[in-house]
């Protein structure tokens, strides 16, 4: 058998190596347009940021080691320019000699990845405007930083790569500004969680524009550039990183007549097989049915790409026996001192797909509060109100965020429920967790909501509610004095049983505390005395750091009414 | 309704608080023999070790705050001395006044915990011999350390508390020796993993005796003590910590005629109800059906105790609706720079219960190797050879061990399989994981074993095999020269295809490399050339640090034959 794999990074390299392990006698050819194979593309921003100091560490294998260890023929600087499915041949262009030739195949694997979006904005092709997609891009950016005096950089696009580049440029002492056309950064988060992320970024001296796109890049006489934004604002910068997004690199597949999805990805079935049974595809170039939303999406993630490679190789060699079950989009990004992560679908995506859900916000500590080094985290989960199936989780914190998102990921992948979150048996000793893990706490609170032991209201509605409804801050007078939601009155939890007569029975009572626990206890006391009560999800702390940021000073003056 | 809860730590306090949240009008009395309620008993060793400096941090609630917030009547320094189930009454002894009185109940909850084992060894009741069970014990130990010149301490028993005490005493600069009667430390581990733990402890200057019990404690004239071990060895010490183990504190339950299990725990059903329908029990005092082994065991863990409390309260107030599904014994302990954790059943326990299983050992990095701070971990999993159901996992490493054991815990709890490990979608960015997470890698290797893509041999058998079989070290000549398994010959992986004629076809070939990957690749090449091959699980590195430690110098001399 003769296998050709087009694309020699993540998915392609995994597929090729696994094919060899399963079939020692096969002829395997791997085609790579670039100079490098099997490199650590997720490490590129950190190499630019000098966090990874040794460039050699980015390379896992090279063409020679692939040959030596796997007996795989790797052709670098070679571009596949056409697939001829009926003849089972590929036309290749040697980029060194500029000569074309053809190779036949029994089975072909497409792992051509994705290409960065470069919108037709004036100046976008000028010097010192970069995308970060491969080693070559990275070397260019690194050289410019080292050789020119880059004092200010502009990152266009607040997704993963943009945020990682922003952090790494800041780490190098370069003043950085992030431009995002959408209303928020980090589209995998809900608006409220994205506001927390934005605050963290701004607290580290980075200027962030949201709701504001790039409209022009002009070269200045001194070598700097002027950036013009869609709202008319202008500022000077020395370098521009474009991280607006990527699209599946579907050029070859389209020309070969393979079925392409609505989002531009090559359509594959669960065996990674395209619409042509001799052609498989893996990685960023495909799109795949989303396990939660009834739609197919590209999956721009290295983890799924590597897993698809293994599955694809098994199916190619042994027939279609191993299935890929989709990606639940488990993602994570380090943002200065914070870790921001998510799995499954956020509330915005669920609403777009008309999927009924409840969200719940909880604050927890990374580990036992009495043990040194414990840090807070905020968790927002979304779940089906009837079945309790967990639909997604978002977390922002410091220590242990990566752990909890991985645990939530297993529950989302396996379509498990709030009951499972409650039962989760964490490894507990004081340095690592609490007797009730943050995952358990998220489960307990959601269970109280499902069982109607507690009813909640959401932070985005707090201001509207405060204008019309009876709002009680059940924290201590000291906490109340230091700041509260406009129009709230203060009845401390431990005094609540003595002040029941002051609370109207004919309207819904809205309570809140700092994080949600005392508000819950207050709601239990009031409900059992015949009141209709709602508790603020995430408490004052979450509200203050998200929607509370937009409350003007005049509104705040109402606080002590 | 009137509820009495006996025992006011973890399980008891959780139950009481939840009952109040569900029933504002109930009369709730909580009985506590000690002076303190709802304290952080898992933090006690760390308070002794000055890691937790503020004693107040150990206390979550006190009797007054329970009254104020939950309207719960807490009677401290009060001992329940008899339950009268037919009359639904409890006789209580006020330890201050030494007066007895009775309280009636509608429902009773037993949360009396466990008591430390103190075997009848000469000198065991002498001064400066302590157990660590409550705040009082802790204060005593702390006072002795502060006021007397404790230069040397002896910890009897190498379980959790023993190891945590050993670490904390060492942290204070006290020379420490650990005595364990069993053949290994940390019974939740298999022997090989326990050998790795022992090496880490010894590397930190602690003397460890295994297979050697305490036989006598003698007081010396200078205030020190002489410890005599079962093998006759004697040494001097200043303080003894007994952490031999605990037993369910079943005195009240037994006297009340409640059904007691074979291990001495109060038997409860999945609703936490004892054999008397008006009496429930939670925490260390119960024993419960083990989800993997067909037997019931006590569960001496704070996490399950807290969860049982919540379940118990729901069932007591609302009728038996919420189930406890058992504990998979997910546990973790910090040992100097290492973290040691496990979930499910280890191989020894599975063998004891005649449960068929395969074990597999893998080495992984906590996160991408090219990103700073990546540390190694070794993972041993056990799984059902037919169904692939994961039965247990043990991990030793530094960073990210707590994360992986929690992920494994969800899979063990939900009776999931090796396929699920392979599909696990981790949150991947270079600071947090690799494109293939350690959990995935464990799954991939186990899947290769299940699919017979690779056959393995276990490290405990390596020496016997080396004496009789054809053993190939497929590492580089440099690695081979630096040390190998006796009688191994060296054929480097990348040269293997050129040396096939030197390998006998009439016998099974045993290969190994450093961690297992190159051995796997070698086995794939050989198998496809018609050889019968086994690869060493965990590779040379695991063998060298476990069973290899026992190979004498004379045997090592055979290395270069």
Automatic annotation (TrEMBL), chains A, B:
Co-factor(s): FAD
Alphabetized SMART domains for the sequence: RHOD
The UniProt record lists the keyword Oxidoreductase: yes
A matching Pfam family: Pyr_redox_dim
GO molecular function: oxidoreductase activity
Keywords: FAD, Flavoprotein, Oxidoreductase, Redox-active center
Segments forming domain Rhodanese: 465-552
SUPFAM superfamilies: FAD/NAD(P)-binding domain, FAD/NAD-linked reductases, dimerisation (C-terminal) domain, Rhodanese/Cell cycle control phosphatase
PANTHER family for this protein: NAD(P)H SULFUR OXIDOREDUCTASE (COA-DEPENDENT) (PTHR43429:SF1), PYRIDINE NUCLEOTIDE-DISULFIDE OXIDOREDUCTASE DOMAIN-CONTAINING (PTHR43429)
Record family assignment: Belongs to the class-III pyridine nucleotide-disulfide oxidoreductase family.
Listed name of the protein: CoA-disulfide reductase
